[in-house]
Design brief:
Distance between the termini: 39 Å
Order of helices and strands: HEHEHE
Strand order of the largest sheet: 1-3-2
Radius of gyration: 13 Å
Structural class: alpha+beta
Oligomer: single chain
Low-confidence stretches: none
Length: 103
């Protein structure tokens, strides 16, 4: 049986709850979209693969991923709306580590 899609609001609410539980400011988290999750997280942003705190979700469409990105950015996460490409169906969010992640 195929996996049921997660509604956008449910995913946003879950990720926002994780930020609140971390007791960090939303600006200490970075959100974006990509079509190349591993390269984006671990090479471009330098998120530590084994010890970094990050979340990824792949949607069926680019529009869904961009809507989640927009909601997270509007809520206060760091990031740049509109990055990625036409195949960017994955949204990601990570906790920024000063001197390690970029940004």
């Amino acid at each position: 049986m195929p996996r049921q899609p997660i509604p956008l609001t449910t995913l946003c609410d879950a990720w926002i709850m994780r930020i609140e539980e971390s007791q960090a400011e939303p600006t200490e988290w970075y959100a974006g979209v990509t079509s190349h999750v591993n390269a984006r997280l671990f090479e471009v942003h330098n998120v530590p693969k084994d010890t970094g705190i990050y979340y990824v979700h792949e949607f069926q469409t680019e529009q869904e991923a961009r809507e989640v990105e927009k909601r997270l950015l509007n809520w206060g996460c760091d990031g740049h709306e509109g990055d990625g490409d036409a195949d960017s169906k994955s949204v990601y969010m990570y906790f920024k580590i000063a001197g390690v992640t970029d940004p």
